[in-house]
Amino acid sequence: MHNNRKKKKHTLRNVFLAFVLLIVLGGAAYGMTKYRSVKNAVNSSFKPSGVTKDRNVSSQLKDKKPISILLLGTDTGSYDRDYKGRTDSMMVVTLNPKTNKTSITSIPRDTAINIPGYKSESPAKINAAYAYGQVGTSIKTVQKLLNIPIDFYALINLGGLKKVVNKVGGIDITPSQTFKWAGYSFEKGKKTHMDGAKAVAYAGMRYSDPNGDYGRQTRQREVLMTIFHKSGSISTLLNQSFINSLSSQTQTDLTFDDLTAIAKDYRSVRKHTSETHLQGNGEEVAKQSMEVMKESELQRVTNFIRENLDLPHAKTGNIQFKPSTQSSTTTKSVQDINNIGSQRSTTGTSNKNSTGTNSGSGISNSGYSNSGY
Question: What pTM, to 2 d.p., does this model score?
């Protein structure tokens, strides 16, 4: 029974991000009148991050300038909104209506970093940032890691992708490798029609992939973009009863008005999509297996993201783990991190570390360069 729960958790990991991306980009295709009928359901998912935004996001939207969204997925509470534990995956999505381009960048869950505000707990995996300081710390961590602004976030509990795929009538994908996972078989080069259960199995397999989590990230993005580009999928998904059934599994600081502005003025970004991921080297850090990022790789991804945000070149961030200069003897274990997530769901913010450092004081206090924004 335990193995089945573990396998289900791995197969459902945050590929439900597809739903959020569809909502963000698809409103205009459905028609604004009907889209407004889901306003209450969308706004029920609204929750500020607790971090002062580094840019005036209202002006960004009003002037139709590029924006960024941090997509997060949790690996616990897959059917209930408890939002504890770790974020199992991260994606930075940028939307540029001027160039008609969307960029999607995956950040490996095992990326070795120093979590802002948690020196004694560092180095740690990037997915621990949420367990220690929730959304605010996750945002600060990504911003400091890559020296980029995060304008909005969307956090998703698991359990929705299956509904989304089934709602659009399934998806067709040609696997790039042959494997079996969660009771399903996939054959390399053979076009395969997938219902929701099969799609989450395809996107969630990790341990049989020769590329490990990097291969899983690629398949996640493949499923996401297949749904995104499927003809008619937007109008199928954007109805009130369906969104009501999923709203309890999402949390975001995108308001209904923000979403309608994006749906109206950013629809052209669907024309071109570029994807990438941070590529690290597997090393043992703090008695755990982590992905250590070279500064040159971080700089490449910083350039990739900033380019689609129409931002000038800037040096990448500075919180990555550096083996030559840091001790890796932190005593926090994976179980310690899980326990912190569980405690936070019941004790709120009474713990002095529950919101990271100065979560309400803005990113300008976090130490990274923002002169290029």
Answer: 0.72
